[in-house]
């Protein structure tokens, strides 16, 4: 009965989604053709700072002394940096401030995946939810774009979905194939079914008892913190004035000459390092502060109702022997209905995530219950021969997701990770919600709304296909040149190529001589890890 019900729901929902798929593919094709025609007509974008970037002091000077910016973005996470890049590449005079390090918050505490959302597609099919379907489709388009514009920081990753009941095999297979179908020409690699023996060969840590087989599909994996930095640096190279450790103390307002209504016209900021305060004036202020969205909105108006419900996502890092080097694993239905990933990362294994309501704090700490929950789910899928111990947890982190929800809702597990763009009566533009993968399209939508609301002079977005910092000159064999030309260790060269891409040669040139026969240059900061001293100098010079 359960099998017939599942198959029936899949077939009915699949037909509806297939119809929606055909129509959306057609409209997407026309939309992309129009965008490409515009980009070709405009030619290449000007990059004022191709080589050396302005120092932080120079950036702060620009922020203080510019009479008025077109756009001021508050928040240096993925979405805020994406908004700054979108704005500056439309030839808008752009400023970006972040009160901590760029990507120090939620954007660096993700599952490291660039994905469309398999479970959202399942909801779209079973509930005939067109909005969920379009969210998945948009994310799959953005997944392909992100893999293209930052190839040094991202790559396709096979993910195994183990199956322990016979009826689940066709059910999951149909769902994963629909995932490939929705991706269309942007499908990374086609999914496939594995026998029990082949699944255990590829993932020997799996629990053998009652294993029927497995399905493998592909999503993207990326270095989230470095990806965020690449977006930020790309915005700076195109002329955006950016500054970290610069917080907004309060918003600036002035009366509208026509209506007399108070309008946001900038922000009063403080340099946290020096304590100096100054004004940044702008025609438009964009609130992209993630979990702190409501705090900035209340600077605009204390009467504003909250639009975000924060949810904590905890991940743990365990030794690399918990997963193969080149394959992840998805647990599609945990004991409480959530989804857990086990993913290879930096020769270790990441396991997560949780999804529990939380309070907003600048430094969220993972709680013991969440860590134990993840360990319990790991035990359910791994062989009894593998003893899962609390002492194996090498690190843990908690990221706060700014979920968009009804303020009266208490169940964050069913909340759609979609986003909203809101413009207040005073003109403050807020982008809230969403997910890492769709940062670019969220930024595009935000700038479209801001340009319309504030009557700014700018053309369409130009960020589709725009290479991020370090991506242009990267090749899969770039690390070999670093070894041969500079005498770096192979592991160090691979790390530099995968972190800085085409700019890794600049880091290599700064590397100090070791005084050994090999490696010739590149002193490690810690012997167990491939990080070298010249990276610190490169960060300071950047």
Automatic annotation (TrEMBL):
Q: What cellular component GO annotations does this protein have?
A: mitochondrion
Organism's domain of life? Answer: Eukaryota
UniProt key word Transit peptide? no
Which is an annotated GO molecular function term of this record?
A: glycerol-3-phosphate dehydrogenase (quinone) activity
Q: Which cofactor does it need?
A: FAD
Q: Which Pfam families match?
A: DAO, DAO_C
Biological process terms in GO annotation: glycerol-3-phosphate metabolic process
The record, for InterPro entries, names: DAO_C, DAO_C_sf, FAD-dep_OxRdtase, FAD/NAD-bd_sf, G3P_DH_FAD-dep
Q: Which PROSITE patterns match?
A: FAD_G3PDH_2
Q: Alphabetically list the UniProt keywords.
A: FAD, Flavoprotein, Oxidoreductase
Ranges of residues in domain FAD dependent oxidoreductase: 70-440
Under which name does UniProt file this protein? Answer: glycerol-3-phosphate dehydrogenase
Gene that encodes it:
LOC107705589
